[in-house]
Amino acid sequence: MMKYLRSLMLSTFVVSLVGTVPAVSFAESGPEASLEAFTTDACSMSPEGLAGHDWTHCCISHDIWYWLGGTEQTKKHADSELKACMRETLHTKGSPLYLLPGLYKWGTKRGGVPRYAGVSSPFPWRWGYGWSKNRGYAPLPGTTKSVITFRLRELASVLEDLKEHFDMTEEQLQYVQMKMEQISSFHLSNSPP
């Protein structure tokens, strides 16, 4: 029960990592923007599970996409992955719980917009939240590959801490690791999801 109350109390888990990454220049976002260390609160202001079902791993994987950001097409893909992961976790077609993945996707579509010129998301879980400067739906420039690689290695080194903090199963941790590798491959190869 405490596990589900965590999300309602908005306890934010911040992965504290040692090391700094040099700032990277972006033409579309001002003189410099840097990729901050990954942070997650799992299912931002929403339950991480219900009635014996736990989809924390779906939300953390979704947060990795949101942390890095990218194009609007990439965001749509990330939101669809969240919905698919939750559906797989719930596997209760015909149950009222089966509606939850669609509601989460709708919520991320509306509340997870990026901050960009003239329109700023009031939420800390916006698209591209890991960047220190406004990026909007901009693709990640090739010059960021070393920064992304560095930050993803940092994240990989603390996944066990995430598992312990969010009380995830080994299977859930493996899902997050698999998704992190897919996200890394996508961003480092610049191929569409």
- How many separate domains? 1
Shape: globular
Main sheet strand line-up: 1-2
State the oligomer. Answer: single chain
Strand residues, percent: under 5%
Main sheet: strands, sense, barrel: 2 strands, antiparallel
Q: Catalogue the unreliable spans.
A: 1-31
Can you give the mean pLDDT?
Answer: 78
Separate helix tally: 7
Q: How far from one another are the termini?
A: 36 Å
Mind telling me the C-alpha Rg? Answer: 16 Å
Percent helix range: 40-55%
Secondary structure: number of strands? 4
Concise account of the structure shown:
By secondary structure, the protein is mainly α. Helix content is 47%, strand content 4%. Helix 2 runs antiparallel to helix 3 (72-90) and helix 6 (159-165) packs across helix 7 (170-189).
Q: What does this entry look like structurally?
A:
With 193 residues, the protein is mainly alpha-helical. The protein has one domain. Helices cover 47% and strands 4% of the residues. A hairpin with a 2-residue loop joins strand 3 and strand 4. Helix 2 runs parallel beside helix 7, helix 3 packs antiparallel against helix 4 and helix 5 runs antiparallel to helix 7. The radius of gyration is 16 Å and the shape is globular. The N terminus is likely disordered.
Which helices and strands occur, and which strands form pairs?
Blueprint: H1 2-8, E1 13-14, E2 39-40, E3 49-50, E4 53-54, H2 56-68, H3 72-90, H4 100-111, H5 145-157, H6 159-165, H7 170-189
Helix pairs in contact: 2-3, 2-7, 3-4, 5-7, 6-7
